[in-house]
Amino acid sequence: MVDVNSAVDQDQVIIPSDRRITIDDLENHRGLDTGVWIAIAGNVYDISTFLSEHPGGDAILLDAAGTDVTEDFFDLHSDEAEKLLPAYHIGRLSPSTEPSNMTPHKPQEADAPFLQRDSWKKVVLYGKQRLSHDTRLFTLKWEHDSQEFGLPVGKHILLRLKSPISGEQIVRAYTPIATRCESGEVDLVVKIYHDKDARKSGKMTTTIDLAPMGSLVELKGPIGNFEYSGQGNCTISGRDCYTKRFIMISAGSGITPMIQILRAIAAHDSDSTECLLLSGNRCEEDILCKDQLDTLVRENTPLFRVVYTLSNPCDGWTGYRGRLGQVLLETEVGSPTPESAEIVLLCGPPAMEATVTELLSKKGWKDRDIVRF
């Protein structure tokens, strides 16, 4: 929201506000009822009206509300994102409260979770396993074996690693598939995009793939707009929800949040939440963690069911063929019913998510019942 004290000249150039804002004012604007403010490089922005437009979802912005996000903003965003800032500028932090003079964070208490939303925590690259020609299982280890990791089911982490070539700090979001607090370990499944693929994630994936054992990596979190608390109960962007069945639709490495949720449900005999997973891949060798998925289904039938579809299958493939599209969705998902209490979980490339969302909308599914990771 643009401050009323700001002005726009004849060429539609936004003139920044000279309003002075204290750190107390900033910290008092953490939600939709008060306004969502953030500070970047000594400037304050009201991003309340930008929440629904943020490509990474509104949850990460709400988590950061009322704080200085300078480091994270420049780590995570391009020059294009920086060009959007003036439209939301409402003033500058008072000189006595700018980040360099703010009271430092209190040391983390011994019994606090390892993960912290407002600070990067160092972990060691402890293990690397080749799952396929372009997929690795990375094991990261934190210092205190008995310390709780602090990642709710359905949430993600930010991973930061410095490129040994350019010195650039690279940041990406990932969903761990498993944590072992008794040994202080967390597992990430990462698809490696090499430079020739020209993928956005290539910088991070090639850097971590080449990193030697014992390298330091940094984590921050949790982030995300979805959290599963068990027995069909979850929150979506702060809204409490209940579901009898999750319809999980994933492509490629988008399977990782689904595995996390499936494991959480399977770990509790009293949780009777049903799960239908539609997994799209290019070929059978590209299906990540297929053995784990098939075991989960076998041990949790009839609650769990997995349907695979391949866009480039071998001659002997007997399952669905083609991308995640209209035929598969009509056959396996269909239209929602008032009594169904179902929630769709969607994770994959942006084009796939947009296509599936459009197809589901035509079948009567509402945006509020579709979670895009």
Automatic annotation (TrEMBL):
Q: Name one GO cellular component term.
A: mitochondrial outer membrane
Query: Where the protein is mainly located, per its record?
Result: mitochondrion
Care to name a GO molecular-function term for this sequence? oxidoreductase activity
Q: Where is this gene product found? A: Mitochondrion outer membrane
Q: Which residues are in the Cytochrome b5 heme-binding domain?
A: 18-94
Tell me the Pfam families matching this sequence: Cyt-b5, FAD_binding_6, NAD_binding_1
Among InterPro entries, the record links this protein to: CBR-like, Cbr1-like_FAD-bd_dom, Cyt_B5-like_heme/steroid-bd, Cyt_B5-like_heme/steroid_sf, Cyt_B5_heme-BS, FAD-bd_FR_type, Flavoprot_Pyr_Nucl_cyt_Rdtase, FNR_nucleotide-bd
Name of this chain's protein:
Nitrate reductase
